[in-house]
Amino acid sequence: MKSIFLVGFMGAGKTTVGSILSEKMKFDFCDTDQMIVEEESREIVNIFKTDGEEYFRDLESKKLYEVQNRENTIFSTGGGIILREENREILNKNFSVYLKASYEEIFSRIKKDTTRPLLNNEDPYNTGLKIFESRKELYDSFLLFVETDFISPELVADKIYNLYRNKT
Question: Is the pTM of this model over 0.90?
Answer without folding.
Answer: yes
